[in-house]
Specification:
Layout lengths: L13 H4 L12 H8 L14 E7 L7 H13 L3 E7 L3 H13 L6 E5 L3 H6 L19 H4 L3 E2 L2 E2 L2 E13 H6 L8 H14 L7 E2 L4 H10 L5 E4 L2 E4 L4 H15 L4 E2 L5 H9 L4 E5 L2 H8 L7 E5 L10 E10 L7 H13 L1 H7 L9 H6 L15 H11 L1 E2 L7 H18 L3 H19 L2 E3 L1
Parallel strand pairs: 1-2, 1-3, 7-10, 9-15, 13-14
Antiparallel strand pairs: 3-13, 4-5, 6-11, 6-12, 6-13, 8-9
Helix pairs in contact: 9-10, 13-14, 17-18
Length: about 450
Amino acid sequence: MSAPRPHARRTASKARRRRPLVLALAAAGALTLSLSACSAGASGDAAADGPVTLDFWTYSVKGNDPKAQAIVDRYNELNPDVTVKLSEVGGTADTSSKLLAADRADETPDIVQVEYRALPSLVVAGVVKDITDDVADAKGDVADNIWDLTTFDDRVYGVPQDIGPAMFTYRKDLLEQYGVEVPTTWAEYADAAEKIHTADPTVYISSFDPGEFQFFAAQAAQAGAEWWTNDGDTWKVGIDSEESLATADFWQDLVERDLVKVEALVTPEWNAEINDGKVLSWAAASWVPSVINAVAPDTAGKWESAPLPQWTEGDASVPFIGGSAYFVPEKSSDSEAAAKFATWLSTSDEGSKLLLTLDLYPGGNGGREATAESSPPALMPDQADFYQIADQVIEDTTIPVTWGPNVNVAQTVFNDAMNAAALNGTSFRDVYTATQDAVVADLKKTGYSVKE
């Protein structure tokens, strides 16, 4: 089966591509209500007199990484009246949940790293602070389409830390061994999957993780779908659009033909398959090399990354996949000092360059420019153009994605339904329909107007 041919993408100008992430959330009414409901005395709007201690939650740090501590130590050195305390907290979803719980208990940190897709629900809940004025002087230090990830209604709610330009990371040596060219379209990807698995039934082009909600959302966006859109005070949900369903058909075909391996990612089993050359690629983003290198360091030098395959040949448009920002909770003990630290780390030349030491792709211009002189990721030490490819994706091909106020509902329903469908061999299309129905029902229950 060839790759689906989604509906022709609507003409996308640069202006459209730089539309803010959740442009119209405020127009839906919940933003104003939730923020006005917050106690005016709950947040530290002014800098405190004397020494300041800031509690910094991050999930980029694993196992007391000395490189991360060195970054914090550098800031403390530059600002002797400030002490930033580094705290490692869970993973991407765990951090958002912990922040909501901490807010209810009045025990929030002062700065927290959260994925972009979690921002709408945090703003609706009144948990994160509008820091527009605090970051005004740094607006020129981050590209507009990256600020868009934390901006809506012309207000800024976070400072971009890292970004995830979509890329295809693959075992160069093994694709060559199987006589497979690097796929540039998803149709070529399907052909490559068949060729590899036919040559060796124990080997797969990739794994298929039914719980990777963000991957499926990105696939649909690349095909032209818009899962949430807003017009004034009315939301429209397009999770079961024809563009989305075409991508569902594509992956169901590969699963049914056993051309991708159905399994969770980054488990002991998956790690072993990556080490043994049984899984040959991962279509995700620029952060993939650091993950693979952490679980399969002995394979370094055998991998390369390329632009993501395209649904329509010649249309290189892709969304960001993953990435995160620093947010200041409404109940921060000193929001001004917290925003200053977040701004230094993400937008100053020194801070954003230091993020490179954590194998992150920085959101700030200084860090992005530094990649031109940086060594490629340890996983592909000989791929000198790795960062140039990633930067080209950012500059020219990024699709703006609107995450709705109930993305958590969509993720839960979708992951449960897709896991069941992959296990039982039932329709993937039904997964999208069930998620559509659940999201629409939840929006209506919450009080939003929904266009059917």
